[in-house]
Amino acid sequence: MYWEENIETAEASELKKLQLRLLNQTIKQAKKSPFYQNFNLNEVGSLEEFQEKVPFTRKQDLRDQFPYGFLTTDLEKSVRLHSSSGTTGNPTVVFHTKKDIQEWTNQVARCMYMIGMRKGDVFQNTMGYGLFTGGLGFHYGAEALGALTIPIGPGNSKRQIWFMETFGSSVVHILPSYALRLYSHFEELKLDPKSLKLKIFIIGSEPHSEEMRQQIEQLFGVKAYNSYGLSEVCGPGVGFECQHQCGIHIWEDYYLVEIIDPQTGKVLPDGEEGELVLTTLKREAMPLLRYRTGDLTRATSNKCACGRSHIRIDRIKGRADDMLIINGVNLFPIQIEKTIMGIPGVGKNYLIEIKKENYMDKLYIKVEVDKEIFEGTLAGLTQLQNRITEELRSEITVSPIVQLSEPGSLPVWEGKAKRVNDLRDK
Amino acid sequence: MAYHLSIFVENKPGKLENITKILSEKNINIYGIYVASAGEFGVVKILTNNLEKAYQTLKQEGFTVSKRKVTIVLLPDKPGEMHKLLTILSSNNINLEDCYGFVLEAKAQAAIVLEAEKYPLIEDVLHSKGYKLLPAEKLEEL
Ligand SMILES: [Zn+2]
């Protein structure tokens, strides 16, 4: 059941005690970095005291301190560097000591064990290897678990399917948008993915809705588990859904979790939606204190049916900077996905476009139709179009212009899907 | 009873041409085409001499396509015949989803393709009025 039973099922009070001890170690370690030297950081007596005294760290701080400002050790002690490319300005770089890699690996292995992956499973990792943490992070975790690991990387769908078929891949790590695209290649090959040994999909790296998860589970005949991580604090393995699929457990022996009001910075109680803030508790090369992830979610500390005491967060609603404002109404792309993916007749890809027309924002939603259930009448299509329009209107309170598209006609992406195209002048 | 194909298309230049190109490359003969549009998108109905081959070909090319039942009625190619036919259908409360025609022999015989919700009522009505219907197998050898 558990990779590390004692820590995974520890009583909440024990976890809190452990966190405080680790937190003080982390503060001590962080003070060695040029960035945290600027703050007057001292040992804290409680988590509350920590929240009162320690300011947030932001992504911009990581960029401003490029490249070594957060590094606490000699560079020789680091064994790995990962980086996420910024669209503007400096990239963020993250260093890892040998111990950091070991701990990261342990987190990923713990996550994989939690969802039922075992030695003997064949793990196909379709995420990009390289600077992106989704490749190597999962790779190390799967090997530590003892699974046969196929480091195939992204792309070349025919080859992906060939490996799945030939080596009986049972666990696949995949972008949710790519999973749907891969299915159409199965269709082309007239091969039913359910006839393969596929058992578990690990999906993550891009926000996706419950509806999309269910679609993936039905198409492939697998259980799909949501994976959460960010390269600033290590990468994947920060948190995972357990087999009960009722929220993402974040490992509290590795992270201190806070949810804050993104406007005021005030710490919010359990159950309220806000921005996820993480403090690393075991990182050596680059500890981060109260790091603002930008991800919006809610948290609950209630014990889970799986027996684990570690805090759970909701699936990520989006990043604070993903929020769209359409004629003054706030909405998240994930709300649109959730709505359209729940409607029969909708295919596997969609695109959101926002344009300015006559000084008004216009929201265009391009939706591919499902060719399997096309019955061939214009009336059926206009009904589908009207239903999508109506259901979106009631979900997001903005009236969209819904355009039906041919399957396979909307753009596809090699990496993370970029489904929002904001064409308004900024 | 016969079938034609219904294909979902976006309303963009070249879409129809793409379909006819694919079919002509496979040596499939098109008898009639009908386009029903709802602005940004529409459906193209196509009657061919080889339903199965056309269907499989288009499907393989990634088109969203389905087969629809139609009734093909033979009419003398002269003024007033079409009106007579439509009057009979409307007086029997039969609505048409599509209706298009093609001439089989100039000034002698035309074929009208009717797609109606009320199937097989439409065929019973036409039979009772003495119309001749074109069966599916005849399409292969027109
Ligand atoms: Zn659980």
Q: Can you offer a commentary on this structure?
A:
- The complex is a heterodimer of chains A (426) and B (142).
- The termini of chain A are far apart.
- Helices cover 31% and strands 26% of the residues of chain A.
- In chain A, strands 4-3-5-6-7-8-9-14-13 form a 9-stranded mixed beta sheet, with helices on both faces.
- Chain A is built from 12 helices and 21 strands.
- With 142 residues, chain B is an alpha+beta fold.
- Chain B folds into 2 domains: 67 residues, 2-Layer Sandwich (VC0802-like), CATH 3.30.2130; 72 residues, Alpha-Beta Plaits (2-Layer Sandwich), CATH 3.30.70.
- Chain B contains 4 helices and 7 strands; from the N terminus they run E-H-E-E-H-E-H-E-E-H-E.
- Chain B starts with a strand and ends in a 9-residue tail after the last strand.
- The model of chain B has no long low-confidence stretch (mean pLDDT 92).
- Chains A and B meet through helix 12 and strand 20 of A and strand 1, strand 3 and strand 4 of B.
- Bound molecules: zinc ion (ZN).
Which terms summarize this structure?
heterodimer, A: 426 residues, alpha/beta, Rossmann fold, GMP Synthetase, Chain A, domain 3, 2 domains, nine-stranded mixed β-sheet, four-stranded antiparallel β-sheet, 21 strands, globular, B: 142 residues, alpha+beta, VC0802-like, Alpha-Beta Plaits, seven-stranded antiparallel β-sheet, binds zinc ion
